[in-house]
Backbone:
């Protein structure tokens, strides 16, 4: 719609992965028209005899060979698109089959595949083997029959990214075999998504044993547990002691504990992202100390630590020290500490040492005088906050008087605009809102949000 050069440039980009856009694919008749236009005349006639709606554009020639640019197949999105042709499940099955065959034939080098709702064994389709051999990323779920994974395992040996949605409470042996057959698995993500919490068979053990054998190549491990039995921690702990090449270690929604011997084996010299929801500060400190100085993000979830943590003051102080001694490149950091002079002193050392710091989450509890603590904290930030700092999240017992907050804002004038988030409703009062708006208008504050929801303020940097 601009000119031929723009069109010829953009079409290959748009069609490299036509399933990734934030659109309603169920209403995209144009995509349905393009896909079905590639079907052979005999297939079209067969589908029409089945009373499947085929669009009139089938009789027109296309300006581009769109599918020749495609490097990805998303079975979920494809099924949504072809449902335009019929609401009947059998007819949709036929359309899905022809659509999969078509994409297996037309996509010259398949890089990404999502088989979340697969109903056809695509590895049997003509030319599928030649195209699936190049697969780099696979997204799937454990409810898929093992036979599908066995088929893929016989062809796909160089998958680099594997994303698994865990939907059943038992082992998927086909998925395990697929993991075992990979020679260059660099990224593995597992997310629980089931309703029943009664395990039939432990769904994790064989998967983690297979992953532990990929220790030389696995760089990124992201796990989100919904529910895990205590006896299953052993295999996870074992796997983590083997995966020494990790650059990313993220474990969500479960408490992970380690024995003293296991902690000695948790050496990650390349670790860049360390994010575990529930881990003791002592264990986290040891992992940080044994990292190679490349950590850019440390995100621990400190909610309710004081209710089950007996030595929080001593361990949090040691944790802050380990960060500024071992993490000179840290950019995103969450900290838990008490309002003692020693804690504030170590915190200021951290700010002076970690000059790459961009986002900081501070959690404090058990404070007698919240405003006095807030005043001391703001003074330290005025004196020592690195110029790269773009975001601060204040969680739990921090409170700032109007005068202290304005003094803090005044000292930000010559710095890049700062985003601030807090969980305290104090800052929604009229006098605070007026002050905040003043410095927003001056460009000193980029944003100031107050969230009453713990999860909203606590999770992930923006």
Residues:
């Amino acid at each position: 719609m601009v000119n031929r050069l723009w069109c010829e440039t953009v079409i290959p980009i748009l069609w490299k992965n036509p399933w990734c856009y934030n659109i309603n694919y169920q209403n995209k008749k144009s995509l349905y028209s393009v896909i079905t236009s590639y079907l052979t005349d005999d297939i079209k006639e067969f589908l029409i005899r089945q009373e499947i709606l085929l669009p009139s554009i089938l009789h027109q020639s296309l300006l581009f060979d769109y599918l020749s640019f495609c490097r990805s197949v998303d079975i979920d999105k494809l099924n949504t698109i072809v449902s335009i042709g019929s609401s009947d499940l059998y007819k949709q099955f036929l359309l899905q089959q022809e659509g999969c065959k078509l994409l297996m034939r037309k996509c010259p080098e398949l890089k990404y595949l999502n088989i979340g709702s697969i109903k056809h064994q695509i590895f049997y389709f003509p030319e599928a083997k030649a195209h699936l051999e190049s697969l780099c990323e696979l997204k799937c779920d454990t409810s898929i029959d093992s036979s599908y994974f066995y088929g893929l395992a016989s062809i796909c040996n160089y998958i680099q990214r594997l994303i698994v949605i865990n939907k059943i409470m038992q082992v998927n042996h086909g998925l395990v075999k697929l993991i075992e057959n990979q020679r260059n698995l660099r990224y593995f993500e597992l997310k629980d998504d089931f309703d029943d919490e009664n395990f039939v068979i432990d769904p994790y053990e064989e998967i983690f044993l297979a992953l532990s054998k990929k220790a030389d190549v696995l760089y990124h491990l992201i796990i989100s547990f919904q529910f895990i039995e205590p006896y299953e921690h052993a295999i996870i702990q074992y796997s983590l002691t083997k995966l020494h090449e990790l650059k990313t270690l993220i474990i969500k929604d479960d408490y992970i504990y380690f024995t003293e011997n296991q902690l000695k084996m948790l050496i990650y010299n390349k670790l860049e992202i360390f994010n575990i929801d529930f881990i003791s500060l002592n264990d986290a400190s040891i992992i940080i100390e044994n990292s190679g100085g490349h950590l850019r993000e440390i995100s621990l979830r400190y909610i309710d630590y004081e209710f089950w943590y007996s030595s929080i003051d001593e361990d949090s102080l040691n944790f802050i020290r380990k960060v500024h001694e071992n993490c000179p490149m840290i950019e995103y950091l969450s900290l838990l500490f008490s309002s003692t002079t020693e804690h504030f002193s170590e915190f200021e050392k951290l700010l002076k040492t970690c000059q790459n710091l961009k986002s900081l989450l501070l959690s404090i509890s058990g404070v007698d005088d919240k405003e006095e603590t807030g005043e001391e904290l703001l003074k330290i930030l005025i004196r020592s906050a690195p110029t790269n700092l773009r975001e601060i999240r204040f969680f739990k017992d921090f409170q700032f008087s109007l005068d202290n907050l304005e003094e803090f804002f005044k000292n930000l004038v010559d710095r890049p605009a700062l985003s601030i988030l807090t969980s305290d409703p104090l800052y929604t009062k009229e006098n605070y809102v007026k002050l905040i708006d003043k410095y927003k208008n001056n460009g000193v504050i980029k944003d100031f949000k107050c969230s009453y929801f713990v999860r909203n303020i606590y999770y992930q940097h923006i």
